[in-house]
Design brief:
Low-confidence stretches: 154-159
Oligomer: single chain
Helix content: 55-70%
Strand content: under 5%
Radius of gyration: 16 Å
Order of helices and strands: HHHHHHHH
Shape: globular
Largest sheet: none
Distance between the termini: 46 Å
Length: 159
């Protein structure tokens, strides 16, 4: 069993400039109008590929809060075989895999598919989100950050 070498909160304190920079890069795609649910799917998929337990759990929890279906969250790992994903989501996931794995580069087919579903500007912002999650994955895997716990719901409000 692996143990955490450091935690996410430690990184924030040890390298605040690096933390702020990666955090800022991760926010530009949403600020530019890229759908937040789509961004969580691509972040989850990249984190699965990179084996970052912290980021996988973090993006599942964020996806749930944003209203992503349980089916999509569970099946993103096998998105090619699952009918739940739209053509746009499939293009984004293929782009994510190509940019995350980078073995052999990005095929013309994957690029053309991405360009069909995203404007040049959208694709640039989507690429920035993929770059950002890949950076976070490197930190999470290197330091074996402990995955965040699911928050327990508080007591029901009395009305």
């Amino acid at each position: 069993m692996s143990h955490a070498r450091s935690e996410y909160q430690d990184f924030m304190k040890l390298a605040p400039e690096a933390y702020d920079t990666v955090q800022a890069l991760g926010k530009v795609a949403a600020a530019a109008g890229i759908d937040k649910q789509l961004l969580e799917l691509i972040k989850l998929r990249a984190s699965q590929i990179n084996g970052c337990a912290y980021c996988v759990q973090h993006h599942i929890l964020l996806g749930e809060r944003l209203g992503l279906s349980t089916d999509k969250l569970n099946l993103v790992v096998v998105w090619r075989e699952a009918p739940q994903f739209s053509v746009r989501e499939r293009a984004a996931l293929a782009w994510t895999e190509a940019l995350t794995e980078l073995t052999g580069g990005v095929s013309d087919e994957v690029y053309a598919e991405a360009c069909t579903e995203f404007s040049a500007q959208e694709l640039a912002y989507l690429t920035s989100a993929i770059a950002s999650i890949n950076v976070w994955n490197r930190f999470g895997v290197a330091y074996r950050w402990t995955p965040p716990a699911r928050q327990k719901p508080g007591p029901a409000a009395v009305s």
